[in-house]
């Protein structure tokens, strides 16, 4: 088994040398879900999933020479978020040099994420192939999730509020949710931009989308459910025939209910049991909701507000802590300055999307909504590949001439 990621690394490197960066990108995207499954295996101090953080800059560093192809406003935003995420690392380097260098490398990957996809995906055909590569990546986690549900075989024991999370071979539920959501996003984008000439492809797309939906649900993530609901509302609101689209979703959910019975609704009720209890007055402490993250946030907020020095409050101390909130993580790591910079970046991205073509509103706002929601329960700035895909697609839709809509 350990030979699989090693072979894939060699194939990607050979493809990069012989066929160029675009083919290497397709291979990285299509196989990343497999790499992440080998998080327990290590190359020196790095797991195979983390090794990509070194491999990607090596493979795609030439895009830095081509950044002049991108608009000035996009380059400014990329530098702004890079500064916001790296501001406090200088103070942490003397204390934890290796950990600080690892975080800095993650930030380099995020910076490259603003350039790789917008520069390399410059034709409609390349966009089509990238979307297919994302779909291919989604097949593995989706298939494993369905296999676990059908057989009862659990590869990694993970639970939340008494529910078994079907995380497959991954460390936790985030990779399954991430690949499932991006599979759905790529399918929607593909069906919106490209004409489907094959019924076989359409059937496969429907089956994959149902599988992706189910795999996201089976990790029992509150954020995942919230993102799906918001995406659903966005799709309906942006559709020309809202009633027709709404009926499609009603029919789809009815079919799922007929197949899985009360399992869907009882699981959702159990998943949000604490939140429902708080609304009904049965749970008195709001910190007990959201998987108890309120206690973690309160602890680190108290630490920042009462124990941190004035200097570290403003400029951060550069240290990473398990706060389960990207905004609070940025406050601790990069201080008030870092938070102000990240807020300025986020508002500028929303403004950019609002000023872009109305035909790409849906795609961009789906990604931005996912980013905002994920940031409340995860340190999204520590997931380099998440940022590469997210900002890469927003970059395509806001910086390039609309070749993808022709």
Q: Give the DSSP E fraction (strand runs of 2 or more residues).
A: under 5%
Count of β-strands: 4
Q: Return Rg in Å.
A: 21 Å
Number of helices: 19
Number of domains as seen in the coordinates = 3
**Could you describe the largest sheet, including whether it forms a barrel?**
2 strands, antiparallel
The general outline is globular
Name the strands of the widest sheet in spatial order. 1-2
Mean pLDDT: 84
SSE order in H/E notation? HHEEHHHHHHEEHHHHHHHHHHH
Which runs of at least 5 residues are low in confidence (pLDDT < 50)? 283-287
Output the structural class.
mainly alpha
Q: Percent helix among the residues?
A: over 70%
Termini, distance in Å?
44 Å
Structure description:
- With 406 residues, this protein is mainly alpha-helical.
- It folds into 3 domains: 1-69, no CATH class; 70-114 and 308-406, no CATH class; 139-271, no CATH class.
- It contains 19 helices and 4 strands.
- The protein has helices at residues 3-19, 21-36, 48-60, 72-86, 89-92, 97-113, 116-120, 124-151, 174-193, 199-218, 222-238, 242-260, 263-271, 273-279, 293-307, 310-315, 326-354, 361-377, 384-399; strands at residues 42-43, 46-47, 159-160, 163-164.
- A two-stranded antiparallel sheet has the order 1-2.
- Helix 4 (72-86) runs antiparallel to helix 6 (97-113), helix 11 runs antiparallel to helix 12 (242-260) and helix 11 packs antiparallel against helix 18.
- The longest helix has 29 residues, at 326-354.
């Amino acid at each position: 088994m350990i030979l699989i990621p090693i072979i894939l690394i060699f194939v990607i490197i050979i493809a990069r040398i012989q066929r160029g960066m675009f083919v290497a990108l397709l291979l990285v995207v299509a196989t990343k879900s497999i790499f992440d499954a080998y998080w327990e295996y290590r190359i020196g101090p790095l797991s195979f999933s983390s090794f990509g953080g070194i491999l990607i800059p090596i493979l795609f560093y030439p895009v830095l020479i081509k950044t002049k192809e991108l608009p000035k406003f996009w380059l400014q935003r990329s530098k702004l978020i890079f500064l916001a995420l790296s501001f406090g690392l200088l103070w942490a380097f003397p204390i934890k040099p290796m950990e600080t260098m690892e975080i800095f490398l993650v930030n380099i990957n995020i910076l490259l994420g603003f350039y790789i996809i917008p520069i390399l995906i410059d034709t409609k055909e390349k966009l089509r192939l990238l979307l297919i590569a994302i779909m291919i990546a989604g097949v593995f986690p989706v298939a494993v999730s369905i296999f676990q549900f059908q057989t009862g075989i659990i590869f990694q024991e993970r639970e939340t509020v008494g529910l078994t999370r079907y995380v497959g071979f991954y460390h936790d539920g985030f990779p399954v949710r991430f690949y499932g959501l991006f599979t759905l996003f790529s399918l929607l984008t593909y069906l919106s931009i490209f004409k489907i000439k094959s019924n076989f492809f359409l059937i496969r797309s429907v089956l994959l989308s149902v599988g992706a939906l189910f795999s996201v649900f089976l990790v029992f993530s509150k954020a995942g459910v919230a993102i799906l609901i918001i995406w659903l509302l966005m799709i309906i609101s942006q559709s020309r025939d809202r009633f027709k689209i709404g009926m499609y979703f009603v029919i789809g959910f009815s079919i799922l209910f007929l197949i899985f019975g009360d399992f869907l609704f009882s699981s959702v009720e159990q998943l949000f049991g604490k939140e429902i209890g708080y609304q009904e007055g049965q749970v008195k402490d709001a910190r007990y909701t959201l998987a108890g993250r309120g206690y973690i946030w309160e602890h680190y907020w108290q630490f920042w507000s009462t124990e941190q020095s004035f200097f570290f409050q403003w400029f951060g101390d550069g240290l990473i802590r398990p706060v389960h909130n990207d905004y609070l993580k940025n406050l601790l790591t990069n201080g008030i300055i870092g938070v102000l910079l990240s807020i300025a970046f986020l508002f500028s991205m929303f403004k950019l999307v609002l000023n872009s073509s109305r035909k790409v509103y849906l795609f961009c706002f789906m990604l931005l909504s996912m980013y905002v929601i994920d940031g409340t329960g995860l340190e999204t700035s520590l997931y380099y590949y998440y940022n590469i895909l997210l900002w890469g697609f927003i970059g395509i839709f806001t910086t390039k001439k609309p070749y993808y809509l022709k």
